[in-house]
Amino acid sequence: MKIDPTFKYFDVAQAHFIINPEYRHDLSTITEEFLGFKIVDLKGQKDMLGMSDEEVQALGEKAQAILSLHKILRAKMKELDAERAYDDLDIPLIKVLASMELEGVCLNTSFYKELEGEFSKQIDEIEADVIKISGDKVNLRSPKQVGEFLFEKLQLPVIRKTKTGYSTDAEVLNELVALNVSPVPEMLLRYREVEKLLSTYVKALPAIIHPKTGKIHTHYQPSNAATGRLSSDNPNLQNIPVRTENGRKLRKGFVASKGRTLLSADYSQVELRLLAHFSQDENMLKAFKNDLDIHRQTAAEVFEVPLEKVTKDQRNGAKAINFGLMYGQTSFGLSQALRISQGEAKKYITSYFNNFQSVKSYLDGLKELAEQTGYAVTLFGRKRNLPDIKSTNRQIKAMAERVAINSPIQGTAADIIKLAMINIQDLIKKRNLKSRMILQVHDELIFDVVPEELEVMKVLVVEQMEGAVSLTVPLKVEMGTGNNWYDLK
DNA sequence: CCCAGCACGC
DNA sequence: GACGTACGTGCTGGGT
Q1: What pLDDT does residue A25 have?
Q2: Whether the Cβ atoms of residue A271 and residue A264 lie closer than 8 Å to each other
Q3: Taking a C-beta distance cutoff of 8 angstroms, is the pair A85, A415 a contact?
Q4: Closest CA to B10 C1' — which residue?
Q5: Which of A14, A165, A256, A328 could be disulfide-bonded to A402 (CB atoms 3.0-4.6 Å)?
Q6: What's the CA–C1' distance between A319 and B10, in Å?
Q7: How many angstroms is C1' of B9 away from CA of A236?
Q8: Domain spanning A271-376, CATH architecture
């Protein structure tokens, strides 16, 4: 199959994504928005000779729409000074994504069969245990039935409500476990974990293996996430479990193709490094230039203790602050994350901003910029309109402010990895390498590598990822190799 | 068929 | 007094 178009082309959907990433990018919506008429949806693929006059006219209008949109959208991108994101990133990335999708990834199906048996058995056991306590059958997959069971039949204290009834999510169940009032919440937590793994991954992934290639072929959407990130679907390979050991095991099933090995490369703390670069905060810059443990450094400043006296809790607190920073987290959010009082959380945040004043002024500046210009912008000129920043509704405005903070950081990280992917793919081709880039997970790339090329690939990948852009902080990439996605170390 | 609730990733 | 950290995909149940 030929997937290397050398002709110049214009992608209406991708251009529209550059101009207004939050809208829909199908041709009929764009045509209506910019040309003011509706194109007729032609059903099925017919030969033109088999078309009625009306259908031929509709087809002509569609072609005319695309031609007109090309000029209008190109001019609009220029006006927005966003052509770089389109010409240098999104367009050249398209064929890279196509190549990754076609290449696919191998799945060890017998391993998944084993897991299915194991997990199904656990599900059955928990269900039986619950029936012993409840007397009659409760569908544990139904939040409604679970809520009635916990809070009406067992009379457990109601922790929180949703708009339709009792909340039974993991946070609620964990609180019930802590209260030590019933064995059921803990059973439900285990049930939910295993059921999730089973239904979303263990059963679903083998079923989607392509009959011809025998591999899993995800589909990357380059115009779906308003920040400029990619998304992955059918199946989503950007949310394969890693957090719990039980879930992480699923990664053992993602294996290198025959005779090859997997190579992973991920950006270390890329978003925090971008925050350091953008804010030019002395303390942060110093930490990254010296390749120090950023969370430990942050903890030392926030809690005003010497570096070597930083406790595990303090480091965790600093990590949560660093994490929340980029999302515009509030003291409430931080208090929830750390299970501390809101007052305590507020003190942490105040102390943080006292010690990292340039970060504070940078984040405030992002909000101001959004107020003045109406959008957030990345290093490569990718813009995201934020009309809600002018809202008189405080909640809506606050949400827009968080987006104004997060989008430039998340979006720039997305821009950078896109550029790295384009450059890596170019070099793989130029050097006639047989190794292939197969997956992208936001700040991580995975390659299916010919063993003889492993050392060459390692150097190539790290150089292109770390060198994609030159910032005032170094970008750092960590690599791992192994025969499956679990063992990449 | 669509929405709610829930849970997985970064 | 309510609200309360960004960006996604996809499962099941349950109501229409």
Answers
A1: 94
A2: no
A3: yes
A4: A442
A5: A328
A6: 15
A7: 9
A8: Orthogonal Bundle (1.10)
Q: Is residue A185 within 8 Å of residue A86, measured between CB atoms?
A: no
Q: Taking the complete model, does pTM exceed 0.85, yes or no?
A: yes
Confidence (pLDDT) at A53: 84
Please give residues of chain A from 259 to 318 whose alpha-adjacent beta carbon (CB) lies under 7 Å from any atom of strand C: none
CATH architecture of A218-269+377-489: 2-Layer Sandwich (3.30)
Q: What CA dihedral angle connects A227, A233, A236 and A237, to 10 degrees?
A: -80
With a cut of 50, list the residues of chain A below it in pLDDT: none
Tokens encoding A33: 């928005």
A247 Cβ within 7 A of any nucleic strand B atom:
yes
**Contact in structure between A445 and A437 (CB atoms under 8 Å):** yes
Interatomic distance A233 CA / B7 C1' (Å): 16
Residue–nucleotide distance: A337 CA to B6 C1' (Å)? 19
Tokens of A27: 């041709």
Contact A418, A90 (CB under 8 A): yes
Find where tokens 């405030």 sit. A364
Q: Which distant-in-sequence residues (6+ apart) come within 8 Å of A399 by Cβ? A: A388
* pLDDT at res. A42: 72
Helix H or strand E segment including A436: strand A436-440
- Per residue in A94-112, pLDDT (tens digit) is 999 999 999 999 999 999 9
The whole-number pLDDT of residue A222 equals 97
* CB of A480 within 7 Å of some strand B atom: no
Q: What is the dihedral of CA A478, A481, A486, A489, to 10 degrees?
A: -50
* CATH code for the part of the protein at A107-207: 1.20.1060.10
Residue A9 confidence (pLDDT): 87
A443 touches strand B (CB under 7 A): yes
Q: Which residue, A199, A106, A207, is CA-closest to A485?
A: A106
Strand C atom within 7 Å of A329 CB: yes
With contact defined as beta carbons under 8 Å apart, do A105 and A215 qualify?
yes
Q: Is the CB of A210 under 7 A from strand C?
A: no
Beta-strand relationship, A436-440 and A444-449: antiparallel
Residue type, position A76, single letter: K
Residue nearest to nucleotide B6 (CA to C1'): A169
Q: Structural domain boundaries of chain A?
A: 12-79, 107-207, 218-269+377-489, 271-376
